[in-house]
Protein 1
Amino acid sequence: MKKTILAASASIMAVALSFGTANADPAGCDDGETVIKFSHVVADSGHPKGDAAQLLAKNINEQMEGTACMEVFPNSTLYDDDKVMEAMLLGDVQLAAPSLSKFEAYTKKLRLFDLPFLFSSIEAANAYMASEDARDLLASLEDEGYVGLGYIASGLKQFSANKPLIKPEDASGLKFRVQTSDVAVAMIEALNASAQKLAFKEVYGALQTGVVDGQENSWCNIYTQKFFEVQDGITQTNHQLLAYGVITSQEFLDSLDDETRTQFLTILTDTLKQANQQVADKEAECRQSILDANSTIRELSPEQREPWVTVMKPVWQEFEGDIGADVIEKAASYSATN
Ligand code: LMR
């Protein structure tokens, strides 16, 4: 019988590892069940990805009892986003959802999602990510042995720094942490600032010690990782999408019999749909929690936001060749209708 399904918390993993017996079985998988390990880097709850992973584990563990069992490893307790890609091809993990910014080594097509000011809202991004066009983009991972199963939306990104940011010139000369994305680097350099690529788990320390001056992320990452504690405030720029590609390996999918594979994929698709509907509310809650923690959020009037668009949006041209002008145009059209 399946025991309580519990995401492996950082502390559980740390204790288990310190005794040399990693608790690789937090969901209590039974003998004979196919174990599906889902490794990610964000908080285990109160975050669009953390919550989606938990919901998926719950649905799989309830509906596939006796056949398959999912274990979730949040907070980079198992792998960070670079290592998880390698681990997946080695069969050490079966499911991951790195940010779309982190697939550059595998495909340049997904650079689309990093283009600044591509989506005006989470609703527009979600509508695009539910389209056939967006599904086709995930197919660009297939040559590398991965299968893109869908998207999880997270939120639009906001800038924070160790000084107030109101005008783009306020960012000039500062150093910002970015994900492993050349689009993000170009965007930061357009602000006359410098960019440093760092793993997610290193960001809080880098902000705290002044290795970097600022960062850009979603409300829920800024809140759950406590970045707001070590920044002057957050500026509501809504300048870029944070979303994830849910991936597995072709080898894992091929190892499942037809019935199991169909059931797994159906549960996954239904769960992602359900999870994505809740993202805007979760982001609003995280934003409110930052305010409740007495941190400063600087809203920009349309007139104040416009110069940020003017400075950063031209980076689109630099990446048009990788992505395709038609692909960009189609994705951008969702912001007009949503
Ligand atoms: C980041 O590195 O900032 C994000 O990709 C983390 C995440 O998964 O949301």
Note: DSSP finds 14 helices and eleven strands in the chain.
Protein 2
Amino acid sequence: MTTPSALLKVMIEAVRKAARGLTRDFGEVSELQVSKKGAADFVSAADLKAEQTLFEELTRVRPGYGFLGEERGEIPGTDKTHRWIVDPLDGTTNFLHGIPHFAVSIGLERDGAIVAGVVYNPANDEVFVAERGKGAYLNDKRIRVAARQKLADAVVACGLPHYGRGDLALARHEIAAAQQNFAGLRRYGAAALDLAWIAAGRFDAYWERGLSPWDLAAGSLLVREAGGFVSDCDGKGDILKSGDVVAGNDFMHRELLRLLQEAASEAGKAEIREAAAP
Ligand code: IPD
Ligand code: CA
Ligand code: CA
């Protein structure tokens, strides 16, 4: 990438500034104050500090824009066409366990569509950026989704429902389908990075249910600008509303959608069988 646009520049500066605090806290993670938002849903002082920094930075450079942050929620702006969608720390459980796989994610929405996105993993200093119509980049190098056309050679990533969250029965069928068809299955624990790794051709396919707009905004644009396809589990486009995502190159996206739909009907039949069992 020659030079990032002025817009990408301010977004990159903002994530780097927020990440300075995260990197410091990551070094002292055992000292960090942590509270629970719900079952297995942690928020730490690190999340809150990072979001405060992002809010200050982004409102300083674009005062009128709206702001939707995971921790503070929706802050409407005077400019009704623009909204930042921010996850200050994606992969909080990884972070709290000292696992160096987490990210700061900023998406910019204009008139309901994501037009710019940055996902930054401070642990390995990888900056993924994309702007609509201008491609996707990792540390200034253009990235593209993988070209693999065989499931048996492919690695699929997923989000897994865990303690107290999600449909475990459906997930069992989906995971079985993935195990029977793909060369490898990965659960890395940071949705924004899962999508960024699809864009960089590291993962061939990815699916997850029950996500929030801040998990998906920047990552979905990265995949599209890297030549990939993103939809919900029914093949529809509005993933920020549904919270479900399927991503990959054209072939992988289509095949994974097919496998997920087969798994869903299997899960439905199994449920009927169980209900009918004496
Ligand atoms: C979580 C991560 C995780 C996904 C969860 C998200 P957070 O985000 O992206 O991979 O499975 O559903 O909530 O809470 O660490 O920002
Ligand atoms: Ca998240
Ligand atoms: Ca988060």
Note: Residues 47, 70, 87, 89-90, 92 surround calcium ion (ligand 3) (CB under 6 Å).
